[in-house]
Each structure stands twice: as C-alpha cells, then as structure tokens.
Amino acid sequence: MRVLPATLAALLFVFSSSIAWSQTADPFGASSGQPADPFAPQPATRPAKPQKTAPPKSVRAAVLQKAKQALAEGRKPQPPQARMHNEAEQRINAVLNDETSITFIQTPLQEAMQTLSAQHNIPIVIDLRALEEIGLDDEVGVTIDLKNVTLRAALRLTLRDLELTYLIKDEVMQITTVEAAEDNLILAMYVLPDNLAAKADQVIKVMTATVVPDIWESLGGPSTAMAIDHVLVISTTSDVQHRAEKFLTMLIEKYGK
Predict the structure, then answer these.
(1) SS3 content of the chain, % helix, strand, coil (to 5)
(2) What are the distances in angstroms from CA 65 to CA 1, 57, 59, 185, 216?
(3) Dist. CA 45–CA 17, nearest whole Å
(4) 209 inside domain
(5) Structurally, how many domains does the chain consist of?
(6) 175 and 225 share a domain?
(7) What is the CATH number of the domain that holds 137?
(8) Cβ(79)–Cβ(252) under 8 Å?
(9) Is 156 inside any structural domain?
(10) Which residues pair with 187 in a beta bridge?
(11) Beta strands of the chain (E only): which ranges?
C-alpha cells in the first residue's frame, strides 16, 4: 500500500498536535501544571464573613426602653467596678483575673478548654453549632505558649486566631464565634459622677473609639452606648463589657468628681 506524500504529512501533523496537547492540556481543565481533578479532595474554606451593618434605630430604641424599664423596676445602676452577676457567673468572672500558664501545640480546642476548665475549676462548653457555621469544630488545633498571664488574656490570645471568643451565659463560660457573641449582648448601667455626666457624649465618643472600636454602632457594629442623665447604658458582649467597665473605672478614678 502506498501512502501519498500529502496524506503522510497530514498524519504527521495530527500525531504531533496530539502529543503537544497531551503535554500541555489538562483534561480536567487546569492550566497551571497541576491537574484540577474534580474527584480530588478540595481544601476546606470558611464561609465568607457577613458584612457588619449598623443596628437599626429600633434596636437602639429597644435598648433604651429596656434600660428605662429596669430603672423603673428598681434596678440600680452600679459603679463600673461593682457590676452585678448572679453568683455562678460572678465566680466565673472573678476567676478570669486569676493567673495561668499554658502550653498548647496543635492541641484540639476541646482538649485545651478541658485543661483550662480543670485548672481553674470553672465550667467551659463549646458552642459547636456556632463553630460549624464558620467551618470549624472542636478538634481544630490551637498553638500557644504563655506564662503568668490572666486567664482572661490567655483566652483572648488562644481564641483570636480562630476568630472565636468567650461569653459568660447560663452560669457557664461558652466558647463561641464573634458573630454569635454579638447576638448575645449584655445590658449594663453605670453611674457617672456629676462632672463626667455633664460630658457624657464625650465619654461615649472616647470609649467607643478606644475600646474595640469596630463593635460599636458608629462603625457598623451591634453594640450601643447612650446616656440617661447620670447613667451610662452599654449594650455589648461580655468581653467588651469588661473592657468598657475597666475603661470607665480608670476614667472615673482619674477625672471623676
């Protein structure tokens, strides 16, 4: 059988083109040298974080109404350092100031929290449902080495890289997401001395600019701070409430009259 020159040239072209395609093209569509196999395990990705939006005026009005109702029912606002908790939550809050030392190397979160719970004799639970919403579970590893710091600081530093936080609720400490904590705001009322009460708007402005600024309504966060006469009403998470309380205590000690 004779192969004509033109036919032979065509066959060589097709053959060489097939070789070139097999060397450069990925049948699964990748173009970077690594096959994009649709059956290969895909890397885990966290769901996109929701954008913060300022609380509607109705939320602010509800906080104000709640504070007025509490005052009308006889609840007395406290100096910042005397904010009240029930007995169990008061004990947990006090333990947060205890000194601790921890060393975790890719330790599962659940195991790390069990260690802290045993060391400080407080109940700690993990909000698994909230963690699942951001693609985590209680087996996620934590790595940290701290010596002689408060339990409060140890928790903040351990949890922050995972975008987690803690809150004190239902007589236990709960480890949860920042978003879930922002859905569980605590209302506290603090008495301002006369000279600072006259400048309540300035006090609020400085506090919200220095204490976790992005959690306040001025920057689209869920937390609010407002004044009713001599009373400063703050609605925020338990951790930020502590920071606000500390800020107000220092302010009153230095400038209050």
Answers:
(1) 45, 20, 30
(2) 99, 12, 10, 15, 19
(3) 39
(4) yes
(5) 2
(6) no
(7) 3.55.50.30
(8) yes
(9) yes
(10) 235
(11) 99-108, 124-126, 141-150, 164-169, 172-177, 186-191, 224-228, 231-236
242 domain-assigned: yes
User: Is residue 90 assigned to a domain?
Assistant: no
Instruction: Show the domain range for 147.
Output: 96-181
Q: Which long-range contacts (CB under 8 A, 24 or more apart) does 8-12 make?
A: none
- Tens digit of each residue's pLDDT (9 = 90 or more) over 23-53: 444 544 444 445 555 545 555 455 555 555 5
Contact predicate 96/151, CB 8 Å: yes
**Residue where a domain stops, chosen among 124, 153, 181:** 181
Per the listing, tokens 């053959």 go with: 15
The answer to whether 135 and 45 have CB atoms below 8 angstroms apart is: yes
pLDDT band, residue 68 (cuts 50/70/90): low
236 has which bridge partners? 186
Q: Would you say the pTM of this structure is higher than 0.85? A: no
Tell me how many degrees the CA angle 60-61-62 measures, rounded to the nearest 5. Answer: 90
Question: Do residues 152 and 192 share a domain?
Answer: no
Same domain membership, residue 250 and residue 206? yes
Handedness of CA 24, 25, 31, 36 (dihedral sign): negative
Instruction: Compute the Cα dihedral for 237, 238, 243, 248 and give only its sign.
Output: positive
Residue 170 amino acid letter: D
Q: In angstroms, what CA-CA distances link 168 with 6, 76, 107, 145, 239?
A: 84, 21, 23, 24, 9
Place of tokens 């879930």: 180
